[in-house]
Structure prediction request, 395 residues.
Amino acid sequence: MNTNNQQPVTTKAILFKPLKNIMTFAAIMTSTVALFSTVDAQAHGYVSSPKSRVIQCKEDGVENPTLPACIAAKAAGNGGLYTPQEVAVGGVRDDHRDFIPDGKLCSVGRSNLAGMDLNRTDWPATSVNPGLMNFVWTNTAAHKTTYFRYYITREGHDFSHPLRWDDLELIHDSGFADQEAVSTHNVNLPYRTGRHVVYSIWQRDWVRDAAEGFYQCIDVDFGNGGGNNSSSSTSSSSSVSSSSSSDSGDTCAALTDWDSDSVYTGSMQVRHIDKRYQAKWWTQGANPVSNSDSNGVWLDLGACGGTPISSSSSSSVSSTSSSATSSSSSFVSSTGNCTSANYIDGSTYANGALVQNGGNEYSCTVGGWCTVGGPYAPGTGWAWNNAWALVRSCN
Prediction:
């Protein structure tokens, strides 16, 4: 007899209540997964100006493209164009080369974006000129940032071969940034002719955020390379004949000091750290010390007190000429021993600090990066010339 007027508990009731709870939990989890999937699909960012390769083809139509390069990309695999903001790799933590192999830089190795790696010269490209130009990342999900970096293919880039890391030259590093819906960077495009690829990396801050990286290939066309986006340099930076100071023996006597804000064009000469340099082509902001190798914009004409190099011979030297390389290396090898301390990776260095590394002496130009070490280690890191300037050989 039930003295509490309660209904007897049946086996059916015992089984039903847990089942109902399980179904409710499953429904909640399904909704949660759907919510996170929606958020993930909206993340994270792409280069909207000038338009990157993925945006160009997405806007041309993922299913029915009309541009020849985008039609070919669809045949090779371009399902990832539905989410162009997701050209990303997780956990890279600044080790981009280790995560993305040569030949797959535009697709970051994802099979559903394989078409973006096709070696073609008919990708839709934006007409550009050497000089300062704004690049804009539209960030569908804002993240704390370690840097935005921009690279460009070297002059004479061969589009018949897959894009490789060694084909690229670093031209801009934004440094740290907070969460931004739109990120605009004033990038100084170097002198180039014809078609090139600008490669941009957005590295999330792995300390404050996550180690994920985002990647974009932007096709640009410099035409004949004759234009520029900045006004010409002042008359004080005009070309000076090497014979103008021959009487005094100081080949730099009539030259002005190099100024990072001035624009220089081919054959203009400057004085910098007691040496004479001649511009090979249009340039602004490129330090002559770290940009005077065979691929650099400056030709090293030797020490100010040295024997002048005739203007007729120096003006005919191209950026790939062996004579340019030999004149630069002969000066470096003739300097004496260095007294500066040996470089220690990870140590703190301020602007102007002098160190020795690998047989050469370097001067710190960006203290924050000099202290980072690793990729910025003087002479050995792949981005060292963004933090250090080569001073001389210590041999």
User: Anything to note?
Assistant: Helices lie at 11-42, 53-60, 68-76, 96-99, 311-314, 322-333, 367-372. The longest helix spans residues 11-42.
